[in-house]
Design brief:
The structure holds two protein chains of two kinds.
Chain A (H helix, E strand, L loop, with lengths): L1 E10 L3 H10 L5 E5 L15 E2 L10 H11 L6 H21 L13 E8 L6 E6 L5 H15 L3 E4 L1 E9 L2 E9 L5 E11 L20 H7 L5 E2 L4 E8 L9 H4 L3 E3 L7 H4 L9 H13 L10 E4 L2 H11 L13 H7 L1 H11 L8 E10 L3 E2 L5 E3 L6 E7 L4 E2 L11 H22 L12 H12 L6 H15 L6 H18 L13 H25 L17 H4 L1 E7 L5 E7 L13
Parallel strand pairs in A: 1-2, 1-9, 2-6, 9-17, 15-18
Antiparallel strand pairs in A: 3-5, 4-5, 7-8, 8-9, 10-19, 11-14, 12-13, 13-14, 16-17, 19-20
Chain B lengths: L1 E8 L9 E8 L6 H12 L18 E4 L2 E4 L5 H4 L2 E5 L6 E3 L2 E2 L2 H9 L19 H5 L18 H5 L5 H12 L7 H8 L13 H5 L6 H14 L4
Parallel strand pairs in B: 1-5
Antiparallel strand pairs in B: 1-2, 3-4, 3-5, 6-7
Classes of the chains: A alpha/beta, B alpha+beta.
Chain lengths: 597, 233
């Protein structure tokens, strides 16, 4: 076992981790540890854009962005943090541009912006061009650009090191334990400050846009130390995943004029969101698709509807909606323009569906996409230990694994990339500042003991159970009973199944007993994380007897601000019991109102 | 349908040399080769090791030789391969275990061309302006996902890993033709090296292999042209 020392350790090398590492390394000795090569991180798959009220194409204001995000969150987002993020958005975009990010450009050379769901002109209620984009690979460009900057600035990386445990001493973070995948050797990284940026956990669900790597490692690790997870019941289902595969089809398709069509050939969103229609918030659209399918209006009676971006359809509905180009001319897009703006989407559809979106509609269904909940933090990325917002000294979190909360019960598209950049930066700055004023703590006798014990248990289990089967059963029940629509009965069933699976998990077999790239043991360990998070998600959801944003209950169909305008804080004790506590939502400028689009 | 998948296997802690093992399994036409590898690992042999993450052709983890061609396993469907599939690690990099190769030399070559924006002018308050036409000059090479399909399909790279390889030239191109970058000559000088751009003999393997459909040979040609003429348009 090796012991290494860094003032700041960042776990994860996606957008948030790279931004945190870039900023922390300016003043503190920093290393970024990642289970993937940095450019493999899931930030790279984000497509449509990053939100900021630059006003490059039409009038826009950070205040509008703030209100839209508060409303999008179904009023569960903390308004001070949202306002902070939306104000920081503008300098953050310029910073990315200065770093070299190749944004698409307007005719006069500025950063190009497109409309996105839930982003509106607050005076007219109509969609506003706020999403700064680079074709439909904006996340790819952000990830590459941040990695390039890290190389330029000689940031230290430990690539393909899987963090297994956090070392806490006297309630303060003191380092992490990681396994080097290439050798199987455990390493102790002794640190003054630890930033968790491990991403989401969408692999709990059967149909998901999320990478295999999205197994919630950071949240799972910290909950084993008795630290809380916030608002885990809120998970976003993106309306447009490729049928059966779940691969994301960006909201940018609808930003470019694409529309949703049911099996009867009807544009159905005007029933559910009369003002912004196909550009309503994601939770609203996912529910609408689900209702259409349930009422027998899926395509060919199947569980999907069409997303249609064929030029004649785009032009027809633009005329019907009275949408015009910025210069007032009628919308008249061509197939070439669609291809130029959405090249990856066209490619995905051709490869996976054998469908050409320029000439055929795309079969889509909602797909598990984004964790609104996670490790509670304040707006500086400092991790929070309790309902009183007590800071955990030396511990930080940023990006999808964190819950600031700027997304509340439902995140607006383009706000996740923004979240990474803004809170990644501030977590990095704060961690470095903290590290400068702190000493290394004395490590406990056997700092890697708990990590080692977890691996020993996996390697030595009696082997009656198959991990692949357990994973599949979990994903199915979570998609069926903990998906877009939920009920007390269904969620209880999901909880029962997940608990049974957790029991069976103790008896999973592994055939690979080696040390070098033992991906089998790693995958079993990751499955354990998913099961733990599936349980805490379901327990948090069962308790919340209302419908809000991504948490939609058929037995409690209304939002209940009287009782539930509050954040869930879920704790696990040493015996695995889950305890739920609550903390108030920060409301500053916007009193909760009925939410319609 | 039943498919037969023959996989290159090497377990470094036991095997003296690599071998091939064949597995049979049920598959649909729309299954990805990656799905088949997952099923083999899940039900037939847990020791099978490979890298993967996003599973839809964006993260670049799962480059491998599929029926003799460099492909991403997540972007290659049974529909394309037929029912007899051979899967091997990409060539030219040391095999560590099964389909996992040592990517360090590849990333070293990437870093050697200074793949980051260099511009020491004072930053403007807002964005630097760039016209859509200027932006289009390097659009294609911004798509690169560093999967190594191109470099490890190149006979010049097989001949010597000192050759910087098509990926590094693509990475350099992305900055050389960016109107905001000030270090084109520096990068061109790096690629003017004996192990630089002139090792490319326009075999086009790289272009054929690229899962992002980047016109790599064209990009390399533009770099050669810039070296010859000193012009960046």
């Amino acid at each position: 076992m090796k012991t290494l020392q860094f003032e700041v350790i960042v776990i994860g090398a996606g957008g948030a981790g790279l931004m945190a590492g870039l900023y922390a390394s300016k003043t503190a000795k920093t290393a970024i540890i990642s289970k993937l090569y940095p450019t493999r991180s899931h930030t790279g798959t984000a497509q449509g854009g990053i939100g900021a009220a630059l006003g490059n194409e039409e009038e826009d204001h950070p205040e509008w962005h703030t209100f839209d995000s508060v409303k999008g969150s179904d009023y569960l987002g903390d308004q001070d943090a949202i306002e902070f993020m939306c104000n920081e958005a503008i300098p953050a975009i310029y910073e990315l541009e200065h770093m070299g990010l190749p944004f698409d450009r307007t005719k006069d050379g500025k950063i190009s912006q497109r409309p996105f769901g839930g982003h509106t002109n607050n005076l007219t209620g109509k969609p506003v061009r706020r999403a700064c984009h680079a074709a439909d690979r904006t996340g790819h460009m952000i990830l590459q650009t941040l990695y390039q900057q890290c190389l330029k600035n000689n940031v230290t990386f430990y690539d393909e090191f899987q963090v297994i445990d956090l070392i806490m001493v006297g309630g303060k973070a003191a380092g992490v334990v990681a396994i080097e995948l290439a050798t199987g050797e455990l390493h102790v990284f002794h640190a003054k400050a630890v930033i968790i940026a491990t991403g989401g956990h969408g692999r709990i669900w059967e149909i998901t846009s999320n990478a295999y790597a999205f197994t919630g490692d950071g949240p799972a690790i910290i909950m084993r130390h008795g630290l809380p997870l916030e608002d885990m019941e809120f998970f976003q289902f993106h309306p447009t995943g490729i049928y059966k595969l779940g691969i994301l089809i960006t909201e940018g398709v609808r930003g470019e004029g694409g529309i949703l069509i049911n099996g009867k050939g009807e544009r159905f969103m005007e029933k559910y969101a009369p003002r912004v229609k196909d550009l309503a918030s994601r939770d609203v659209i996912s529910r609408a698709i689900y209702m259409e399918i349930r009422e027998g209006r899926g395509v060919n009676g199947q569980n999907y509807v069409y997303l249609d971006v064929r030029p004649d359809q785009v032009n027809k509905y633009a005329a019907l909606d009275g949408r015009k180009n910025l210069d007032g001319s009628p919308v008249n897009v061509t197939g070439e323009q669609i291809l130029a703006k959405l090249p990856d989407i066209v490619d995905f559809c051709r490869v996976y569906l054998g469908v050409d979106p320029v000439t055929q509609p795309m079969p889509i269904q909602p797909t598990a996409h984004y964790a609104m909940g996670g490790i509670p933090t304040n707006k500086y990325g400092e991790a929070i230990a309790d309902e009183k917002n007590t800071v955990v000294p030396g511990l930080y979190a940023a990006g999808e694994c964190a819950c600031v909360s700027v997304h509340g019960a439902n995140r607006l598209g383009t706000n996740s990339l923004l979240d990474l950049v803004v809170f990644g930066k501030h977590a990095g700055l704060r961690a470095a500042e903290y590290a400068k004023g702190a000493d290394y703590q004395l490590l406990p006798n056997n700092p890697a003991g708990f990590a080692q014990a977890q691996f020993d248990r996996i390697r030595q289990a009696d082997g009656k159970e198959n991990a692949f089967d357990i994973g599949r059963t979990m994903k199915k029940v979570m998609f069926d009973d903990m998906g877009i629509f939920r009920s007390g009965k269904g969620m209880q069933n999901a909880l029962n199944v997940v608990r049974e699976l957790k029991e069976r998990y103790q008896h999973v077999s592994v055939t690979d007993k080696g040390s070098i790239f033992n991906m089998e043991v790693m995958n079993v360990w990751e499955l354990g994380n998913l099961l733990d998070l599936a349980e805490i998600t379901t327990v948090s959801a069962l308790a919340r007897t209302e419908s809000r944003g991504g948490h939609s209950r058929e037995d409690y169909p209304d939002r209940d601000d009287q009782n539930w305008l509050r954040h869930t804080m879920a704790y696990v004790d040493g015996k695995g019991r889950i305890d739920l506590k609550y903390k108030p939502v920060v409301v500053t400028k916007f009193e909760p109102k009925v939410r319609t689009y | 349908m039943e498919v037969t998948i023959k996989i290159f296997r090497y377990y470094p802690e036991k095997d003296k040399k690599p071998s091939y093992k064949t597995y049979k399994l049920e598959a649909a036409e729309t299954d990805r080769v990656l799905d088949l590898l997952e099923k083999v690992k899940g039900y037939q042999d847990g020791t099978l090791s490979f890298r993967r993450s996003c599973a839809h052709g964006i993260c670049g983890s799962d480059a491998m030789r599929i029926n003799g061609f460099n492909r991403l396993a997540c972007k290659t469907l049974v529909r394309d391969t037929g029912t007899k599939i051979t899967v091997e690690p990409i060539l030219g990099l040391r095999v560590i275990k099964d389909l996992i190769v040592d990517m360090d030399p590849f990333f070293d070559n990437f870093r050697s061309v200074k793949p980051w924006l260099i511009n020491d002018d004072p930053e403007p308050e807002k964005e630097r302006y760039q016209s859509p036409e200027q932006r289009a000059l390097f659009d294609d090479t911004t798509k690169c996902i560093l999967c190594a399909c191109c470099t490890t399909s190149c006979p010049s790279y097989w001949a010597s890993e000192k050759y910087v390889g098509p990926q590094a030239i693509v990475a350099a191109h992305r900055f050389i033709f960016d109107s905001r970058d000030k270090a084109a000559s520096e990068r061109l000088e790096i690629l003017n090296d004996v192990w630089g751009v002139y090792r490319c003999h326009t075999v086009y393997n790289c272009t054929m292999a690229c899962p992002r459909e980047i016109q790599i040979t064209k990009a390399i040609g533009e770099v050669k042209m810039a070296l010859t003429t000193g012009k960046l348009e």
